[in-house]
Amino acid sequence: MYEYFQIDPKLQALSQEAERELAPQFERVEEIQRYNQQKMLAAFHQAGVSESHFAASTGYGYGDRGRDVLDQVYAAAFGAEDALVRYNFVSGTHTLTVALFGVLRPGDKILCVTGRPYDTIQGVIGLEGREEPGCLKEFGIGYEELDLLPNGAPDYQAMEERISPQYKMIYIQRSRGYSLRPSFSVDQIARMASIAKRKAPECIVFVDNCYGEFVEQEEPVQRPGVDLMAGSLIKNPGGGIAPTGGYIAGRHDLVEQCAYRLTTPGTGREIGCTLGHNRELFLGAFHAPHVAGEAVKTAVFAAHLFSKLGYGVTPGPEEDRHDIIQVIELQKREALIAFCKGVQKGAPVDSFVVPEPSPMPGYDCDVIMAAGAFTLGASIELSADAPLREPYAVWLQGALNYHSGQLGVLLAAQEMLDEGLLQL
Fold first, then answer.
1. pTM
2. What SUPFAM superfamilies has UniProt attached to this entry (predicted)?
3. Sheet architecture: strand order including 367-371
4. Residue 142, CA distances (Å) to 100, 125, 145, 296 in order
5. Contact residues for 403 (Cβ-Cβ < 8 A; gap 6+)
6. pLDDT tens digit string along 108-120?
């Protein structure tokens, strides 16, 4: 089928060579994929999932057994005491916001130990210039942050010196956002949590786990000291099937507080109809470990292919992975645009659309996005996006299966080749 997609024979040969050389890396990814898929099946068994749990509820949703059992499945799969999984979470940022407002109170202070958080959460916090109505700052909740080291690693020494009981929450963003710093492993997160609990035993250690679920064999809340984590179902944990939603998982008492924020104090998780979405959410959860592994394999392939083509990549093709995101430094504005055009051509939906850079609120430059997805905005499906600024890096993520993801990466390279921006 390479002829149908008009992939240059030299690019085909380079791709085949890359796949042969990647056999050890793929084997390592598949070992994690196999373990996590078995872990998910065990979670379904432990929760006793049955056909009856897929039934729809309406109105208040009293007694929706499927809703409650889905919480049990995610809690077991994540190794958490409890979980709150709802299609009512409209985005990852909304899920994080519910968690923050759920466990914080006026006068509390947050210390983010992983540098400046992702753009959309800045408005939730109320950072200077991003003081949106209803933000944490308006409610008297303070925020401070620690910079990372110049190489993007956590500054453990600064944490030792800065963390104290004055902070109610230690906030950790696992993934990189629109930055070139590395994502953080469960081991690194556990070390941050250990410092936090030693310096401020009563603090809440909260992890933004977006893009990281099922990439390693453990999740952050399985480690001592990590109290709470949250993420989006249209990223890794929804398996490309959940049409919307999010999860919060961790300590039972904290998850309960989040449920009171999502609905109302006193009713919490006891209400909330599911309107027939349960089947998709269960099926998405079941597929999630396999799909996350396919996305990681696609990222590894992209790293190896483009490093062969002479571009800087992070992570490197042989590095351990802690999220599904691959960064490629394309060096030129035109190359970045061409790359995104090629990724769009590799999509099953809207493959004929031509991505164009455009302004986006909160950014100081144009942003380009390539995504042809069954679920709008689902970054577990193959997508690429970037602000158009030096070093003209692109953030690639997702792929429901490796074979289509690998072809999408090849089409990105082919588009660059066709536009005279790549030499073989």
1. 0.96
2. PLP-dependent transferases (SSF53383)
3. 312-314, 326-329, 393-397, 383-387, 367-371
4. 12, 8, 11, 36
5. none
6. 999 999 999 988 8
